[in-house]
Write the structure tokens for this entry.
Amino acid sequence: MITGRKYLTFNAFALALCGHFPAIQQIHKHRFGRGYQKIQNMEYKASLDALAKGITIGVFILFIAIGQQSVRAILVAKGDTAGILIHSGMLLLFVAILLGSWLYAPQSYTLDRNELTINRPIGKVKIKLGDLKQVRLLADNETKGTIRTFGVGGLFGYFGKFYMPGIGHATFYATQRKNRILIVTNNDKIWIITPDDNSMAEKLKL
């Protein structure tokens, strides 16, 4: 039985051999599974750019200002059912927009040996690395004329369905207007992500 310091020494030795002998890599991966996978995981931050921050703060301020007026209108309605329903509906709509946008906004990206994960508060999106057909950085002029067809354009980020002239329809999971990485999968689906560290593009190619 291998225990304590001897186990750590053996584990480090096995990891060193993995880089030179694929067969040993598979055996070690099977034997130590989770620990091996954890070593390979890399998380990339996805910070909001100035425009997205400004839009998010501006929407909050606007909704709070209108929301206060709706609350006052409800308090003085005194039996005006129609007025109460209208202003209550507006408040619910504001909450739904803010909460829904935040829940589906990308927070970060995680890359491991098998897949790319787009982390969101609800419903993580996973792309298998074996399905990647093309990965490259986008130049600024390639995104000119981009049209949002069904998505969010600044509130907590830029995500959803967009159309880029010269590239086509794409699914955005972006938080900024720089460091755009274009990913094309084998089914010709196009994805756009924007990690703070654009060297992630090279990692995806490995």
